[in-house]
Specification:
Blueprint: H1 2-25, H2 31-45, H3 53-60, H4 69-89, H5 94-130, H6 136-144, H7 148-156, H8 163-183, H9 189-206, E1 212-216, E2 219-221, H10 225-237, E3 247-249, E4 262-267, H11 297-317, E5 326-330, E6 333-336, E7 352-355, H12 357-360, E8 366-371, E9 379-381, E10 384-389, E11 399-403, E12 414-416, H13 422-429, E13 436-437, E14 453-454, H14 455-461, E15 464-469, E16 476-480, E17 487-489, E18 492-505, H15 511-515, H16 525-537, H17 544-556
Parallel strand pairs: 11-15
Antiparallel strand pairs: 1-4, 2-3, 4-16, 5-18, 6-18, 7-17, 8-16, 8-18, 9-18, 10-15, 10-17, 11-12, 13-14
């Protein structure tokens, strides 16, 4: 017991020397402490060794209910005195040893209590911090003042930016960019951070809007064997034969990491009218990354904002990590009635032939068309049409054409090969093509010319199911880019139709692509802010592909 007591004494001397000052400074009004003092004091006072009455009387001070910190320090001093005597004289009486041990036990319990109080205090502070009550007014004020730290804290606490607050944040970012340009100074990192808060808020708001999803079976060309290779070559050189390309189930997704599910997603309100307003963003009608020198920072930011919303939607709808979805191509396109497209990309034209996006570019894995104008108001015709093979069965063997789909609100029209005039069939056998074809069902020879369909249109519809989508400003169609989603744009009969086609890849950006950039890949928040400023103001000389590569990298951040 003496050895154990000696070890305990050495330990307590060190411990108590460190704790006395803390005990003096920490004032506690605790009934638990008082009860412990009383218990210890009673046990010490109860000793029968009269030679140590003075010591026990000192302990008796703590039988009172006082909780003053000075008295707690006296307890520690009593223990220290006893231990000093033990170390100097080599022994203590049994009563002294008992008193010291009991007082030491009390002090250890008290120290534990102090630690628990301190921990509870810390936990309480943390909980209070976590449960700080913010309101929408505070969030709007912080956004208006561009206090990004406060905005970040409030968003972390659970607040969300509504459409009006998000719009304020966006225009504050635009103003900050304009000021940076006017003053020829770097763009603060808080600007890019606020822009990302805008991106996140846009997505949260989109998830609350109406959406229609149609799951489809993923398809790819059947290129097996010699015949398959020949068919593939025929497809390459003959776009008109696109619909007859033999297909097999599966997702090609060359060099990418696509989801194995395919679908079509219809958003009636993907963006608000204000976000697509060509008066507010006039350059939005003809936007490309080929020439940004004359484009306002507001329009560039708005275009990037819309594309980023699509990117986040693709990641959400197909369950893919956001960092794996990269914009490969995006531009504004103008469709004008009575014109023929010249060249690719954003060239004008009044229709788009049947095609598959992934066939156009192997890196196109997910596609979107966002509309900036409304059918029936800004233009007539110009439906976006999904063009699918008609179901093959005995019941519909003679139904070589179907137009519309009840899911999209389209009308259905059925045609039978027997309804085509025999003279026209004879012309076709001889390789001659008549200008017009008429269906005999319910058609009088005196009917207006509107009762006739061109042979070209009949061939287009033969054996197909056409599912039209009627565009309106702010609506969007987002879909997997494979052969399950062949599509076209019907001819515009009047007016002008504006749209933003954009295409996303799951292929990683090769390191060589970053080497094409003027200053390389951004690594810090400051680099990112500087690259945003460059993208917005075009103050560095870069080739178009370099600018596109920079957009990809910035959207990954």
């Amino acid at each position: 017991m003496q050895v154990a007591l000696l070890q305990l004494s050495l330990f307590l001397l060190q411990l108590l020397s460190c704790c006395v000052n803390q005990l003096s400074a920490f004032v506690v009004n605790s009934r638990t402490f008082t009860a412990g003092v009383v218990t210890s004091a009673k046990s010490l006072v109860g000793t029968t060794d009269q030679t140590h009455v003075g010591k026990t009387n000192k302990f008796a001070l703590f039988s009172q209910t006082s909780t003053r910190a000075e008295e707690k320090v006296q307890v520690a001093n009593v223990v220290l005195e006893g231990l000093e005597k033990r170390l100097k004289k080599g022994s203590l009486t049994g009563a002294e040893a008992t008193a010291v041990i009991e007082a030491s036990s009390f002090l250890l319990d008290y120290i534990d209590e102090l630690e628990n109080v301190a921990q509870d205090h810390h936990d309480g502070v943390v909980q209070v911090q976590e449960e700080l009550i913010y309101d929408e007014h505070q969030l709007r004020t912080a956004v208006a003042e561009m206090d990004v730290d406060a905005v970040s804290q409030m968003l972390k606490a659970g607040l969300t930016m509504d459409a009006a607050t998000t719009n304020t944040a966006f225009w504050n970012v635009v103003d900050a960019v304009d000021h940076a340009e006017a003053e020829d100074r770097p763009l603060p990192t808080t600007v890019t951070q606020m822009l990302h808060h805008v991106f996140e808020a846009d997505m949260q708001q989109l998830l609350l809007r109406e959406k229609e999803t149609f799951n489809v079976t993923c398809m790819q060309p059947d290129d097996t064997g010699i015949e398959g290779a020949a068919r593939k070559m025929n497809y390459i050189f003959d776009d008109g034969d696109h619909k007859n390309l033999p297909l097999t189930e599966g997702r090609r997704c060359e060099d990418g990491s696509c989801c194995d599910k395919c679908s079509r997603n219809i958003f009636r309100t993907f963006a608000s009218d204000a976000e697509c307003d060509l008066q507010t963003f006039p350059e939005l009608s003809s936007f490309t990354f080929n020439n940004l020198e004359t484009v306002s920072a507001g329009t560039i930011l708005q275009f990037v904002r819309l594309i980023e919303r699509v990117r986040r939607t693709v990641a959400h709808e197909y369950g893919l990590p956001l960092k794996t979805i990269l914009p490969l191509q995006a531009y504004s396109r103008k469709y004008v009635a009575g014109t023929t497209q010249k060249g690719g990309g954003g060239g004008e034209g009044d229709f788009v032939t049947l095609h598959t996006d992934e066939a156009t570019h192997s890196g196109y894995h997910y596609s979107c068309v966002l509309y900036l104008s409304t059918q029936g108001k800004d233009f007539e015709g110009g439906d976006f049409v999904f063009n699918d093979p008609a179901p093959k069965s005995e019941d519909d063997h003679n139904n070589s054409n179907k137009k519309g789909n009840s899911n999209y609100g389209g009308d259905e029209e059925e045609f039978n090969d027997d309804e085509i005039d025999e003279d026209i069939l004879e012309l076709l056998k001889r390789g001659e093509l008549p200008d017009k074809i008429v269906f005999n069902v319910g058609v009088d020879e005196n009917d207006d010319e509107e009762s006739y369909d061109s042979l070209e249109d009949e061939i287009r519809r033969a054996g197909r199911v056409l599912t039209p989508f009627h565009p309106s400003r702010g609506s969007a169609v987002i879909f997997s880019s494979g052969w399950e989603n062949m599509h076209e744009v019907e001819k515009i009969t009047s007016g002008v139709r504006y749209a933003v086609p954009c295409f996303f890849t799951t292929c990683p950006v090769p390191d060589a692509a970053y080497e094409q950039m003027h200053v390389g890949k951004p690594k810090t928040d400051e680099d990112i802010a500087d690259d945003w400023l460059h993208l917005l103001l075009a103050h560095r000389k870069e080739e178009p592909m370099e600018s596109v590569g920079r957009v990809k990298e910035l959207l990954m951040k």
